[in-house]
Model the fold of this input.
Amino acid sequence: MVNKNVKGLVYIAGDMLTKGAQMLRAKEREEIEGLGCPLYNPADQKDINDKQNVETHDNLAERIVTKDSAAIRSSEHLAYDLSGTCVGTTVEVGQSLGMQQLAQELQEVLNQDKDDSELIKDFQTVVSEVLSKKHYPHMEDIRHFDISEYGQRRSFSINAYLLGAVLELTNGKGFYEWAEVLDSLEKANKGDK
Done:
């Protein structure tokens, strides 16, 4: 699916988990709308980001990544408030940088003085290299375990956007244990899959 830029669309991103951060996002929204710019504000996406009132938490992380990533790709302008510990926003910046770097690499291929069949082959090589990468997200935190925790008694939490990105990069597996990373790398080094 190809997303075309929406003329002037502004994507604003930043922490939205504290009352102060929510007030800042609202102020940014108001100021951007005051300029007459179309706006995508993840904080306004109640179907995925109103954590207390979403219809279901099933696949919530994946739904956040799908919806917000489509908005990132469609936006002409991206404004990131990277204050504090906004992990999801940090992932969005990384995603934007990765898309930009890939586009630059593909543009370099297109700028080569080659016939169409050679350009297509080079283009396919770049795409294949990106899609064949193996991702091994891991987390070395003693609170990362499988036990139900609720309310204020949570000892550990992963930002939903980060989790959604990790799930997408790993085809749904999620975080690896470090031993799994080493095992996978060892197998890859030996030519096993």
Observations:
- The helical segments are 19-34, 46-49, 60-74, 87-110, 116-131, 160-169, 178-190.
- The chain has a mean pLDDT of 86.
